[in-house]
Amino acid sequence: MSTDQFTFTVSKTDGTARTGEIRMPRGVIRTPAFMPVGTAGTVKAMYPDQVKALGADVVLGNTYHLMLRPGAERVAQLGGLHKFMNWPYPILTDSGGFQVMSLAALRKIDETGVTFQSHIDGSTHVMTPERSIEIQGLLGSDIQMQLDECVKLPCTDEVAEKAMRLSLRWAERCKIAFGDQPGKAMFGIVQGGAMEALRIESATQLSALDLKGYAIGGLAVGEPQDVMLRMIEIVEPHLPTTKPRYLMGVGTPDDIVEAVRRGIDMFDCVMPTRAGRHGQVFTRHGRLNMRNAKHAEDTRPLDAESKCAASNSYSRAYLHHLVRSNEILGMMLLTWNNLAYYQELMAGLRKAIAEGRLNDHIAEVKEGWAAGERAGIAEHADNVAIAGED
Amino acid sequence: MSTDQFTFTVSKTDGTARTGEIRMPRGVIRTPAFMPVGTAGTVKAMYPDQVKALGADVVLGNTYHLMLRPGAERVAQLGGLHKFMNWPYPILTDSGGFQVMSLAALRKIDETGVTFQSHIDGSTHVMTPERSIEIQGLLGSDIQMQLDECVKLPCTDEVAEKAMRLSLRWAERCKIAFGDQPGKAMFGIVQGGAMEALRIESATQLSALDLKGYAIGGLAVGEPQDVMLRMIEIVEPHLPTTKPRYLMGVGTPDDIVEAVRRGIDMFDCVMPTRAGRHGQVFTRHGRLNMRNAKHAEDTRPLDAESKCAASNSYSRAYLHHLVRSNEILGMMLLTWNNLAYYQELMAGLRKAIAEGRLNDHIAEVKEGWAAGERAGIAEHADNVAIAGED
């Protein structure tokens, strides 16, 4: 199935949406794809074979965390991240830049790169575009991301433009550093805040670099959903149709279906895993907060029709008990359910695109969520903060 | 395989040790048996099907925890503990008395029972022998334990005697409360501190009650191993050979093999699960502390010859990383490894007794631990505090 080259083929389009396959030596990624986040070399509270069995073709590793602990050189010495974490399938790594900005202390950014102190032990590190690619190479990552500067929204036009232009220059440096690796890929990242002109310029200039894939970064950082979707719509016509498009750090199930509709092929988000550790579940009938006392005597499973044991074999009353008791098994089962739902959502979207009925399918998916709300099955659940690491 | 009656048959003896089967409607317990502790309706950090697959025939539930949360009446309403926790096989429950003594606030003990306040919400509860049996019945427990008074060692003879006699009177009340339940069992508990005469009197008088099984309680509460083993040796001749003997809350692998040699059939202990959550592992080559920096670049699995994936498929370097990073997967894998080792230990003891070579087998097992020490494989690991709940 896999090849010795990194390739992307679109097998079917439906409006702007498309379904296809990314192939590489370590496996095939069916798109649109959701990538579970494995921050520190583990998709939290999941065995790797469970993650694969749910239909995940690729997981994300966080360069910032792994470079600090256990260290990129150590991972390389141990045979690379795939072997280290028992995940022989594709791995995408971020550049580390996003976490440097959100987690590290004493960050200093200039043309060269970012200097920062570890949030673990206070040690000082320098992250340049070249070092980011070097680290991702030491980890053995199949899809590597350029170092970029991601600004928080809202921001001034000047800040957005400065970060976008720096990110473009860093993309060129990362391309050179990455060089020629036929079985792997380095993706560029479109920046530009919420400014349409900046986003278009970023996409156009990155496209000219003829990279193997393109991400849209700097979204899902606090802006309303309509701003995010508008930016996707603005950027999409300026990205090559022949390359995968990855919307970084997104998102809720609703964010994902709307972004797929607008032509996005790849997603990652901590939401299903982090929410699962905080008592929140995603189902075809919407979201539930398992801490809620109303589940205490409910003998129904989360979803009797799901193929996932976490969803079909444990009562809501039991899950409620585990969450209330802070039991590890509660986190294990809720995370499992959530990742199962996300993968089921992606499989449904892929099938609907292949059948040319994406809009109808999305309407049905949303009807499922809304029916849950009407039946009082779903409930308001506080949003779990989204960030790029889990 | 199972029957509608609770029965115990010894198939082979080897010195004082014996191997056999406890049968009951929910399944067969192969003895000597180790019962993983499922305090609050979950063997921590394990899916129930994993626990069964390792060879556990029975798990222990803690009455104190379950009566407070989610509540015995609620568990009964939800169909019983087996259904609640997805464990259709035998369950043994303790009486709740040990945890009342160790966890609850404002305990007051008299002839009637124990009055205490919940450590969760401060609510006041009364635990009598009859209420303990009622609660264990509501949970649906297959093997129920009498309420007893367990004293800390060392203690004065007067304290030990008073607690032993109270426990004897409570055993009679529990027997009456339990009544006639052919498929289930109520076990008495031998008390008497470290006083030989008291232990013998307790065992003799409990035997006269013709209960379905007998536990030895009040050991592994801080006394040296030789005191514990001496108490087992003293008590054993005074217990009927036709009934299972359960050493409560024990223990280390070494405690277990020595107690099996002295005729014990059943064990429970939090050690494998609790140690697994604190970075410590048990192997054929002794104990390891995975926090230790010496594992950071060790690509070997914990035990390449084990059939357990946690033991044979993940490098020590990776486990070290997970433990250092406080990752849930680290607790999951170490707990899994430890329970696998404990069940492997029990299977080996059963086989050796059946083959009439227990002493040789125990010598080989201990040689494995010692060889690990000599090779620097095993290392001093701080003992994880042992207590009756996990």
SSE arrangement:
The structure is a homodimer of 390-residue chains.
Chain A: E1 7-14, E2 17-24, E3 27-31, E4 33-35, H1 48-53, E5 59-61, H2 63-68, H3 72-77, H4 81-84, E6 91-93, H5 97-103, E7 105-109, E8 114-117, E9 124-127, H6 129-139, E10 143-145, H7 157-178, E11 185-190, H8 196-208, E12 213-216, H9 225-235, E13 245-247, H10 253-261, E14 266-268, H11 271-277, E15 280-283, E16 286-289, H12 309-312, H13 316-324, H14 328-354, H15 358-374
Description:
The first copy, chain A, is α/β, with parallel strands linked by helices and 390 residues long. Chain A is built from 15 helices and 16 strands. Chain A has helices at 48-53, 63-68, 72-77, 81-84, 97-103, 129-139, 157-178, 196-208, 225-235, 253-261, 271-277, 309-312, 316-324, 328-354, 358-374; strands at residues 7-14, 17-24, 27-31, 33-35, 59-61, 91-93, 105-109, 114-117, 124-127, 143-145, 185-190, 213-216, 245-247, 266-268, 280-283, 286-289. In chain A, strands 4-14-13-12-11-10-6-5 form an 8-stranded parallel sheet. A 3-stranded antiparallel sheet of chain A has the order 1-2-3. The longest helix of chain A is centred in the last third of the chain and has 27 residues, at 328-354.
